[in-house]
Amino acid sequence: MDALIREPRRFNPLLRLGVWASERVTGRRMQPARLLAWYPKAAIGAGVLETLVAHDEPSARILKLVRVTASLTTNCPFCVDMNSFEPDAAGVTDGELSSLQRWVGDLDAELAASLDERERTAIAYARAISSTPLDFPPSLKADVTRLFTEREIVILATTAAQVNFWARTIQALGIQPAGFCTIPTA
């Protein structure tokens, strides 16, 4: 399926610079950035949001697991493609990515064994944030507040919410995966 709308022929010079920078960093044609150029305020806001993303806190591994989980939960192929790219750089294995993709109810034994309690809780929290309707059982709230600092909770919540923003925007515009990686098969 093609995108819902075509890319604008001409961009605001500031946006052109932003699109160029995002494509240089990713090595891919960034159709989301190009389509947002139709409304510069949205493009600039999304660009600022993207530049302020968390990278290392609480850990690169937990953030990668949260991003992939939110991508899968929102069922966004572009997001899964992008957020599954180079998992080993964050210490996430291809097997863990495949297990996350298969995860429907409880974590499978293989994935659960490879994760510590903080990672399992971060994944459950990301799924809760990314599901409709939102549902935070008391046990999840208790685990999140027991295992993470207030700062880390805000980082986890905003990381999952950022993926949700992109998932909804990308899906609403009909944007297809950009070929960042081979998505593990279920």
TrEMBL record:
Under InterPro entries, the record lists:
AhpD-like (IPR029032)
Which Gene3D superfamilies does the UniProt entry name for this protein? Answer: AhpD-like (1.20.1290.10)
- What domain of life does the native source organism fall in? Bacteria
Q: What is this protein called?
A: Carboxymuconolactone decarboxylase family protein
Source species taxonomy: Bacteria, Bacillati, Actinomycetota, Actinomycetes, Propionibacteriales
